[in-house]
Give the backbone structure.
Amino acid sequence: MTKIEQLEILKQEVLSCQKCKLHQTRTKVVFGEGNPDGGVLLIGEGPGADEDKTGRPFVGRSGQLLDKILDAAGFNRKDHVFIANIVKCRPPNNREPEKEEREACLPYLHKQIEIINPKIIVLLGATALKLIDPSMKLREAKGQWMIWKNKIVLTTYHPSALLRNPNLKKEAWEHFKKLFYKYREIINPEIKSEHIK
Ligand code: SF4
C-alpha cells in the first residue's frame, strides 16, 4: 500500500473521531495535507477558524504567511512538505489545546509520522514542541537541530506568532534557511531558492 493509501485509511478513521470534547464544537476535522513523499513534515498546534471551515491545515492568515515563507525558501506543499497538527479539531476561540485533548489526539499524529516517515520534522511553536519534550521551552529549542526517534527535528515559531510580532520574522527566516540547507544536504541537492544561495 502506498503512503497516500495508508493515510487515506487513517483519515477516514479520524474524520469520525469523538475521542475528546473538541468533536462537539468542530465543523470539520483537519487531518493534514501535502506530499507524504516530500521528506519534510511540518507540525502545527491545531486548526483555527478558517481551517475548521475548510478542513484544510494552515489556510488562514497564518497559513498564507507560512506558504510565503516556504515559497521563499524553495518549498511548497505539493512537492516537499506534508502539514499536520497536534490536534485535528479546532479548540474553541483558538485557545491552546488542553493536555487531555492533546493526549487523545496524539496517536493519530504518531501514526501519520510512522506512515510518512519524514526525514525532517519541523515543529511550529511551543505546543508542537511538546510532542518531543513537554518540559522544553521554545526559546531553548528554536533554531536548533535535535534528534527525536531517529528523526531530525527543527523547531521554529508558529506563523501566528510572526503575525503578532513581525520582529520575529528575521529569526524565523534564519530557521527556514537552515531547513533549506539540510534539505539540500540530505534529501535533494537540486532544490533551489531565489533567496538563499
Ligand atoms: S481533536 Fe483529535 S481526539 Fe479530539 S475529537 Fe478531534 S480527532 Fe478526535
Q: What stands out?
A: The CA atoms of residues 20 and 100 lie 8 Å apart.
